[in-house]
Amino acid sequence: MPQTLFEKIWDAHLVATRLDGRELIYIDRHVLHELHAPHAFESLEKQGRPVRRPDLTFSMQDHTVSTRPGRTDTSNPDGAPFLRAMREGSRRNGIRVFDLGDPEQGISHVVAPELGMVLQALLTRFPTAMLPPWAGLARSRSAAAPPSSRISSPRK
User: Where do the structural domains in the chain lie, given as residue ranges?
Assistant: First the structure.
């Protein structure tokens, strides 16, 4: 039986099927933001695990930054600790940071496709439940699953 485009992409990224039927898939790109990345960096450190592909992982300061011109870390004082933690975790892990003052910094869901981080047939992971329209293919597979959960196969 012919496969749909979705099935072809999914199968190309399938790493393993667990005994409980859930599937582990390879994610081609990770686009991080400062609200969730510091927790992920801390978790990896505690486990003694490195970021597997820092060259395919990108950090975008976009959730706690002020929208005012001339913004700095202190423009939104509540966000400053997140910005600093993102910089430090990214530096330790060799990940490029799109920081305040970087002309390519912006809203991750907008900037990622503009800069080629998101490409056709690649799976890109953002640590958020809010996904842009171009993520519909990936989102349809896990619509009922919270973003922190593993994706389950609908083939059951």
Answer: 28-139
- What the block records as the tokens of 98 is 């799109």
Strands 57-60 and 124-125: unpaired
pTM of structure? 0.77
β-partners of residue 58 are 31, 96
With beta carbons less than 8 A apart as the criterion, state whether 29 and 58 touch.
yes
- What is the sign, positive or negative, of the torsion defined by CA atoms of 147, 149, 154, 155? positive
Cβ atoms 117, 31 nearer than 8 A: yes
CA-to-CA distance for 37 and 63, rounded, in angstroms?
11
- CA 42 to CA 15: how far, in whole Å? 25
Q: pLDDT by residue (tens digit) across 111-144?
A: 888 898 888 888 888 876 555 544 544 444 443 3
Dihedral sign (CA 79, 82, 86, 87): positive
Q: Is the pLDDT of residue 156 over 50?
A: no
